[in-house]
Amino acid sequence: MPVSSDSRGNSVFHGDVNSPGRSLTSSPGSASRLGRAASWHERPNLDSRFPSFHALSETPVSTVPSSPRIKPRLQKKRSVTMSIPGQTFTKLNQSSSASSVEYADDKLVVVMVGLPARGKSYIVNKLVRYYNWLQYSCKAFNAGNLRRKQQAHDSSAAFFDPTVPANARLLDEYASQTLEALIHWLQHENGIVGIFDATNSTLERRKSIVERLQDLPYVTVLFIESVCSDEQLLASNMMLKLRGPDYKGKDPQQSLLDFQNRVRMYEKKYEPLGEKEENLNYRYIKVINVGKKVVAYNIQGFLTGQAVFFLLNFNLSPRQIWLTRHGESEDNVKGRIGGDAPLTPLGLQFREDLAKFIAEQRILFQERLHIAQLQKSDMLQGAAIAAGESSETAATAATSVVAAAAVPSDDFTSDPDHDHDQSNSCYDDGFLKPFSVWSSMMKRSLQTAAAFDEDAYDVKAMKMLDEICSGMCEGMTYKEIRTQYPAEYEARKHDKLQYRYPGSGGESYLDVIYRLQSVIVEIERLQHHVLIIGHRVIMRIILAYFLGCGREDIAYLNVPLHTVYCIEPRPYGTDTYQYNYDPVNRRFVQVPFSVVNKAHDAFEEL
Hints:
By secondary structure, this protein is an alpha/beta fold. It folds into two domains: 107-312, P-loop containing nucleotide triphosphate hydrolases (Rossmann fold); 321-385 and 431-591, Phosphoglycerate mutase-like (Rossmann fold, 3-Layer(aba) Sandwich), CATH 3.40.50. The protein is built from 18 helices and 16 strands. The chain has helices at 120-133, 143-150, 165-188, 203-213, 231-241, 252-267, 275-279, 302-311, 330-334, 345-387, 392-405, 425-428, 443-449, 478-484, 486-494, 509-515, 517-525, 536-547; strands at residues 3-5, 11-14, 23-26, 107-113, 138-142, 193-197, 219-227, 283-288, 293-297, 321-325, 435-439, 458-461, 529-534, 563-570, 573-582, 587-591. The strands form two sheets. Strands 1-2-3-9-8-7-4-6-5 form a nine-stranded mixed sheet, with helices on both faces. A seven-stranded mixed sheet has the order 12-11-13-10-14-15-16, with helices on both faces. The two termini are 44 Å apart. Its EC number is 2.7.1.105. GO terms for molecular function: 6-phosphofructo-2-kinase activity; ATP binding. One of its GO terms (cellular component) is cytosol. This is 6-phosphofructo-2-kinase. Synthesis of fructose 2,6-bisphosphate.
């Protein structure tokens, strides 16, 4: 991997970090800290660990009075290492309960930095979902939402003018109240990762945030700046802002001009992260063009490292994520859990029809995306003409934004798999976006994936996608478990998420979540379609990630056999679709998306 140095002596890595087109800048101070060495008073008395070689009678008797023993002062802060729900425990919390604040030895406050329409909210939403899925309680606090709730002022661009003292004081007050709400949540509501979502555009503001947080125990502050220099991406972000609460129901063209003026107000005082923060030894991540380049400085701590790792691996490419369980197996018919049984005739029929269905949907998505691109292009080109009716200066600015956004794209960006000037060629020559098919290494999943042509799909089996291991309960029915292991039956019924099956290889839902962490990150990294052929627990956990489900729901999502789910990532969430298989007519029928929880006292499902 090529390495160069910037003007400050930081190492800059170019090329493939986890995906093409990304680079990561690091510095000598950015290595992860897994723990500090114990201080002198924490080390054991080495003399007490070795026996004396003198008999008692030979031990010299001291005639000098002993010196007074000075009790060492305890340190205020312990060393901090990684704490993973369900995987580690401390004396503070030997049960390692995912619902307890004590499972995390440190807390993290993420402070967002960036001009409007630079993708801050997109990054915030992704981080909230990711940390909560890992079972770290995470919540975002948005200063703009508090401002809108006040409803005591106009939200036009003039309100954001920093040269108007009264307005500047109001904005500072909104930011201060938002930060206090975050602090209260950390201290009194078992919060672990709090995200302060605001522009935080000046060094002075960022200093005041650090000063306010510095006395909180075990709190690390991490700044994340979102920078956007891609004109097309910036234009699309601005168009999305017009759908937000500040401009809802207003004239789109006037709203666009007003929002551009708002950005100019912020630009008057904006100070990007950089040398000044480094001189203050602040931790920060700079995300450029939605992860095309990531700069990390002074990164320390497990939770902070998770943010860096995740931000290196996501993108805005339009794509579909398909999820389904394997076809019906012989053990499904018998009601036995685990095992490695082959498919039944109905399961074999399902796999053949699944392959045909996915092939059809692959083409339909490409056609739908193409039509949406053309419609958006026409709409924005019309808006560019309308902008000519405004003042000359405003019209020039509006036209540049609209013209940039008029390049064919979907709601959030063009397909990065293709150059902008060739964005339509993939439709003219019949090219289809690549498509991966992932299965587990269990027989029933492998057999389901076998129907997909490897010349048309990238078919791969992954051990991480195997069903939860039921330990000594493998191959048993639930009735047998209840009869033979009543205590285990009740224990799992009490806490299904954390319960770990006894016996060799037995797992819990939390174990499987961390087994699937690399799979989730790889899905986020992909710029093309993927179909995952998994199992009940696997489907629940992956769906829970994309749906942002709470920990109380993960283990109870309803994911029956022969049901196919489709997820299309969007800037502020996901579009979801569900198709149920009709074995009589051998077709898939779209139905309302629903993964309604089963009764929480039902043990009779993995």
